[in-house]
What does this fold into?
Amino acid sequence: MTKPLFKRIALIGIGLIGSSISHAVRRAGLAADIVGHARTAATRDTALRIGLITEAFATAADAVRGADLVVLCAPVGACGALAAEIGPHLAAGAIVTDVGSVKGAIVRDCAPHLPAGVHFIPGHPIAGTEHSGPESGFAELFDGRWCILTPPSGSDPTAVDKLTALWLGMGAKVEIMDAEHHDLVLAITSHVPHLIAYTIVNTAAHLGRVTDSEVIKYSAGGFRDFTRIAASDPTMWRDVFLNNKEATLEMLGRFSEDLAELQRAIRFGDGDTLFKLFSDARQIRRGIIQAGQDTSAPDFGRQKAKS
Amino acid sequence: MTKPLFKRIALIGIGLIGSSISHAVRRAGLAADIVGHARTAATRDTALRIGLITEAFATAADAVRGADLVVLCAPVGACGALAAEIGPHLAAGAIVTDVGSVKGAIVRDCAPHLPAGVHFIPGHPIAGTEHSGPESGFAELFDGRWCILTPPSGSDPTAVDKLTALWLGMGAKVEIMDAEHHDLVLAITSHVPHLIAYTIVNTAAHLGRVTDSEVIKYSAGGFRDFTRIAASDPTMWRDVFLNNKEATLEMLGRFSEDLAELQRAIRFGDGDTLFKLFSDARQIRRGIIQAGQDTSAPDFGRQKAKS
It folds into this structure.
């Protein structure tokens, strides 16, 4: 047995990502011990019962004591207050990271509360499902997915390497970039797609001339794929949009311009423009499959729910 | 052995839907014989080689002779010309149907060319994948999915019942509605979602500040689900939008209004509005899973492509 990478990992928040980290860390033997904090007693009980953590703490401050790695697995909007709470209780030399979908705001909200001698290296695994809670996690969630780390300039290279090794050990691939660029990239690859999905699901739900029942029955024509994204955790996503406002609004503006162009092509019966734009989109899809970020198995034809 | 429902089915067009019909008809023994027409010799050869049809015809006119069921499996924009071609060659009492995603335009374009004594009953199976061509079909494509039939008023009930029995035999569920309502329902459940997906994929592909390579690498955050829809056949979708213009533009207008509302909420930091809209969207998702139109298996966490 080689020595585990970390002695004691403290998970602050034990939902989909926190529980998946526990599974993936244990699968690869990356930590001697995993403890955690969750706000509700029900989540703490579940996390202990299914073996995600060995000790559950009612406060984040208690959970981080003696940990050499602290992972904030909470909605982006909650991380500043958590950093303020745990700051005085962190072990010297500890690494603090997070898993939030926005990085600029995390640095702004957390960094001021973390003492010198603690290594703060924000992170974001690009992985997830539409499910929430401590029982939704699984060890394979990060396999083959990218985790972006955004170490502030002047970060200790050894600490960055150690956190990189953790994510690699959990099956992920690791990329380093600055927080601002991360937020721009994620605005287009994740935040705006989610906003659009939430929007069309709500549009469909409020049509007088088409019933909810019809929308549900005939959703296999494309709509259901939007509902899957739109089933993601509302608190997490509210915080994403409140904290990545500028990049999201910029990308939304571009999307609206492009949609107007297609709308005009439909209005004026311009089939050539439609055909060209639709053909171009196929190329991007091929790139995603070649990069291993999706499978080419036909998905619209997926089987009925077993229920 | 009971007698098959049809003696001779002629498939006009042998792509994803045509080939899936062949598989599903043969699975249930619904026809004594299946013949077909495809525009290209390559498709005809493939269809014969993999046993989708017993005879391949270079013209639609030749393919329909002696058929008691003709299924137009071509893009919506091609159906009018096909109806004109086959009209004089149809057997008396034959049923002619189609599988197009738009129904009003099909009636407008096809009905004038079909002789008295032929039963024209437009249809639309709400099923598909992002793949195209004669080798992309499979027998299970229609299992548990809805097929909408839009018989014009005055249609022969026996012919409608027979076509209904065919779709039930292929595993689908059948609903009858008028063509105009079909086009409105599909505009929101299928046509606008596809247009939005095509749009955002193209938006992402033309960003100076985020590279295509970054979009592809980090697509697991939601974007890849849009690319899957946007990989659908460009010709088919061009024809859908050209032929369901009014309903698509109406639904797009509503979508844009709703998107503007969310955009404003982001701009002004209105977290309550965001949270409420995101929570509402979850309800629709639950309805779709309960109705058996999707599974609740976590999909964002799907495994890497094997390739």
